[in-house]
Amino acid sequence: xxxxxxxxxxxxxxxxxxxxxxxxxxxxxxxxxxxxxxxxxxxxxxxxxxxxxxxxxxxxxxxxxxxxxxxxxxxxxxxxxxxxx
Length: 85
Known about the structure:
Layout: H1 21-30, H2 35-42, H3 46-54, H4 61-83
């Protein structure tokens, strides 16, 4: 399936055309993080992040880029912490 089907052309509209809240929640819980911690790492408020998980808001393209960068950072930190044990 082509990802182009889900992408909007307008940079000011939502990045995806499907709900991502369940996926974000699943990833966050698998990392054993609170909404506040992951939101801080992404650089947004906990309220904004909560809205994404509930499906009340859909992240825009730039927000998705921040989510990916934030999750990468969290994963790196967890890996470093585990390697120190």
